Amino acid sequence: MKQRNISEFLDKIKENPYKEIVVKAPHCGYVEFVVTQKGVPVSGPEGKYKEKPGTLLAYIVRENNKKPIFALENGAISEIFPLKNKEFVQAGTPLLKIRHYLTKQEVIDLILQKTLYLVKAQEKGKYYFVPEIDKKIGTKGCQSVLLRPGEEILILNVMKREKYISYEGPKGLIYAIYFKQGQTLDCGDILFGVCPQEDLESIKEVIVKVQSEWEEVRIG
Amino acid sequence: MKKHKVLIANRGEIAIRILEACRRLGLDFVCVYTKEDRASMHCELALKYGGEKSLYRISSYLDANEIFAVADHSQATAIHPGYGFFAENYRFARRATQRTRPLIFIGPNWKIVKDLGDKINTKRLARMLNVPTVPGSDRPIYDDLEAEELARNLFNFQKEQGIEYPVILVKASAGGGGMGIEEVGDLDRFKTVLRRLRNYAQRQFGNDGVLIEQRIFDFNHLEVQIVADKYGNVVHFGTRNCTIQSTGRQKRIEVAPGFYPKTISYAFDANKVLNDIVKYSIRMAKYVGYDNVGTWEWIVSPTGQPFLMEVNTRIQVENGVSAIISRVKGKDVDIIEEQIRLGLGEKLTYTQRDITFTGVGIEYRIIAESPEEDFQPWVGTIERFSWPKYEWAKVFTHVPQDRPYEIPTEFDPNLAMAIVWGKNLEEAKRNGLKFLNEVVLEGKNKRGEPLKSNLKFLKQKTESILKF
Predict the structure, then answer these.
(1) Whose CA is closest to B14, among B408, B316, B264, B379?
(2) Among the four residues A169, A180, B186, B450, which has the most C-beta atoms within 10 Å?
(3) CATH C-level class of A105-213
(4) What is the Cα–Cα distance from B105 to B15, expressed in whole angstroms?
């Protein structure tokens, strides 16, 4: 992507730099709200390993277990869904909405998805890296994995049946991973982005540009 | 019977069959579903017959806490696990019955699920009762060197028996339903297969233990349907033959009875084999105090030697094919209804003498898959699905007929179970082909490609049913 295009894209993001995040009940249980007012600032997890949880929003109680629901991103509460305190909710019931200002990393990811060669889910199913690649990512990081066309890279699990998938893009490094292994993905969802080695420098420039131009807003 | 409310902790067609059995028994019910399953007919029927309070959305069918939370909120008094994950999970069965607000677990008591639900314990028990089992390991193996040693011994053992090309099976010990089984013909390849299978087992079942057994070639896969109550009474509902499977060893056609010596000639005394596997199954069921429905799975070698494979301490998908040939005191029987009745503490009201068998039943598993491409599941949307109505045919499905249905990829691929009956094997096969020829199953995937199904495969295989 050219510098001019990147600037245009950044401007477009700046017009509406927010993402609405709906916090849903992860499972059935009785909901107990901790945050009860709109506009309250909340923060996501912090620390090197995100070991400090975000703002406590609510509890879901089931089988005598009180499960805390934390904010996963910074932002402010923009909506509280009309539920009574200690009401039984089913899995997936919307509880709250957080208005989240995009971080530098999220903006970088958005732009990278326009720059990198994207490997997408060919069909609906659960995706895994083959064990050799998975191990390499785990020990040295994804940018240590050089992919060559024709190489088996993924395992697709559909209805408990597995199929090996070969890489069909240009030779390059896995630059960023956008999926969680074992999560069900739809056809067309982005799995990861590959950067040909010769493009590494221009990708770094993109990142520098976003880092200098995007001002992160911290609420809460 | 006390008015119970049964929580149906499963999905798809089995949830519908349980729901309908509850209604016939005059019991209340409550169903659960996950977001991927919202379009399943089991949700629609739950709402239709039970109203809003009979259907709960949960995050996962595999989350016990979730199931129990729904049970308490809905005031369920019993829990039916269907044939899924919880059906053979003794911890779940134990927890259901021992929690502060106990629930009746509709299945065998948890101690039996523990003893027989584990393939390895079953093998040990069978050997103790002189019930024949396949040579091989009787505990999960986690150590590669130990696995190689056992594999080497099994290859040598077969060579000593005069088997020219010995083969062994490597199975994920926590697997089931044909998942996680590979065969190997030499020790070098064994190491590669072992590594791959342990990786697969860890991903699929969270346990990378393996079992290693001698591969019996060209066998038939038979089953014995056991039904027992909590008062020591045990009966059987005959045998089934489940030999016609996909390449991944998943059942595609089930037939009752297990052999048909009236018109098919076997290299062994087929009646004796059927009688033997029933006798062995009942012997084990009585010994352990079996107290609900269960299936004893057998493999029968080409020379008519039976080996116990495993016991499924639950209702099977194919229970209906046994029911269609069975009469109790001359009347039709529903094995799921029996399971619920007995699970709730009622007695068997009949003995083996009251059970008669008539004709032949064939169950076809209709699946969107490509048999030509190693039975790879087809993923997409079903646009038309219909089948003919005959008095000799039954269809169990969760796929709606009045609207498009996107096949979820998270579950087993079965779309429908069609069970046909005939007064003899020839008539059953004729009926089967007639039925399959009239099934309409069409759809498209996201790339606009047409639906692939196994209908042609089922028709082709009908000819060879029960032939050994």
Answers:
(1) B316
(2) A169
(3) mainly beta
(4) 15
Smallest CA-to-CA distance from B85 within B417, B337, B411 is with: B411
Fold: same for A18-101 and A105-213 = yes
Positions of B annotated as catalytic residues are 314
Q: Hey, what amino acid is at B324?
A: I
| Mean per-residue pLDDT, B408-424 | 94
CA–CA dist A101, A94 (Å, integer)? 20
Single out the residue of B281, B305, B307, B277 nearest to residue B293, CA to CA. Answer: B281
Do the Cβ atoms of B377 and A159 come within 8 Å?
yes
Residue B36 sits at the chain A interface (C-beta within 8 Å): yes
Architecture of domain A18-101: Beta Barrel (2.40)
Helix axis angle, B12-25 relative to B41-50, nearest 10°? Answer: 20
Cα–Cα distance for residue pair B50/B45, rounded to 1 Å: 8
pLDDT tens track for A109-127: 888 888 899 999 988 899 9
User: Is some CB atom of chain A closer than 8 A to the CB atom of B98?
Assistant: no
Residue A1: pLDDT band with limits 50, 70, 90: low
pTM of the model: 0.86
Asked if B73 reaches chain A (Cβ–Cβ under 8 Å), the answer is yes
* pLDDT tens per residue across span B287-315: 999 999 999 999 999 889 999 999 999 99
- Specify the pLDDT at position B140: 87
pLDDT at residue B198 greater than cutoff 50: yes
| B5-106 matches B220-462 in fold | no
Q: Quote the minimal CA–CA distance from B65 to chain A in Å.
A: 6
Max mean pLDDT among A214-218, B88-92, B185-189, B336-340 falls in B336-340
- Please give, one letter per residue, the 3-state secondary structure of A87-115: EEECCCCEEEEEEEECCHHHHHHHHHHHH
**Averaged pLDDT for residues A35-40:** 94
d(CA B464, CA B468): 8
Q: Is B91 on the interface with A (CB under 8 A)?
A: no
Domain ranges for chain A: 18-101, 105-213
Spell out a b/e string for B212-222, using b for 16 or more CB atoms within 10 Å of the CB, else e. Answer: bbbbbeebbbb
Average pLDDT for A20-40: 96
To the nearest whole Å, the CA of B34 is away from the closest chain A CA by 8
pLDDT above 90 for B174: no
Residue B409 to residue A90, Cβ atoms within 8 A: no
The distance of A74 to chain B (nearest Cα, Å) reads 25
Instruction: Kindly give the pairing relationship between strand B369-370 and strand B376-377.
Output: antiparallel
d(CA B307, CA B66): 39
Domain boundaries of chain B, sorted by first residue: 5-106, 135-214, 220-462
Q: Are B381 and B404 in contact (CB under 8 A)?
A: yes
pLDDT in tens, A66-120: 999 999 999 999 999 999 999 999 999 999 999 999 988 889 888 888 889 999 9
Which CATH number is associated with domain B5-106? 3.40.50.20
CB B105 within 8 A of CB B97: yes
Look up the CATH number of domain B220-462.
3.30.470.20
Mean pLDDT computed over B195-199? 92
